[in-house]
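Posting here for the record, re: magnesium ion.
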Amino acid sequence: MLSVDNLSYSYGAVQALREVRMKMQSGCITCIMGRNGVGKTTLIKTIMGVLRSSAGAVWLGERNVSSLPANKRAKVGLAWVAQGRMIFPKLTVEENLRVGLQARPDKLKNIPDEIYELFPVLKQMSHRMGGDLSGGQQQQLAIGRALAGDPKVLLLDEPTEGIQPNIIQQIGEVLRMLATKRNMTIVLVEQYLDFVRQFGNAFYVMNRGRVVAQGEASELSEELINAHLSV
Ligand SMILES: Nc1ncnc2c1ncn2[C@@H]1O[C@H](COP(=O)(O)OP(=O)(O)O)[C@@H](O)[C@H]1O
Ligand SMILES: [Mg+2]
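Prediction output follows.
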């Protein structure tokens, strides 16, 4: 299980996170929702250790990982799929996946078959340049690269943004499988409500750096959506 306790973060004078408290259970998909600019990406980066929180703590199970830099957090089991995918366009699909192997403690040199089983398109395209893939394929590659590190916690920042519906569905099914079959802790920043309703277990809604609502995904009410999510 992952938890954040009173997490705060400021970009200079802009306070982007204010005493955020959340618990993300293993075996569950926890969705982080909220309008643009409310602090979702900052939260994910602070959990990963790419940004260092000014106050508060990040716990992985019983371990306080707050003092670890991002590469050490990757070694203890956190993986991050960044908003906008951030694959390496001039590396092949296979080379992109190899980058993910570096987070593994077991020094495995080959890409696990499981990654290609989850995303067969990556096998078909293993020698193509990352930059030549469609947006949806790049997102699958970004998730595959994160999984190559054999994480316990998978942080995904708007993976469905700008992606064709059939691939959105495939991604949802993979995430559900990773949660239920591998007992992974999945933290999903998501603005696409149908996806949260279909695949999410729990949700948190943020506004101006704070948690303003939380519950089970099945409890996401119209009222809540109108208050915090619709534009
Ligand atoms: N590098 C940055 N420097 C200054 N302010 C930033 C930076 N990144 C984000 N912010 C500000 O922090 C707030 C939260 O941003 P972000 O976490 O990206 O929100 P979200 O992911 O919910 O859209 C916003 O007000 C945004 O303008
Ligand atoms: Mg964001």
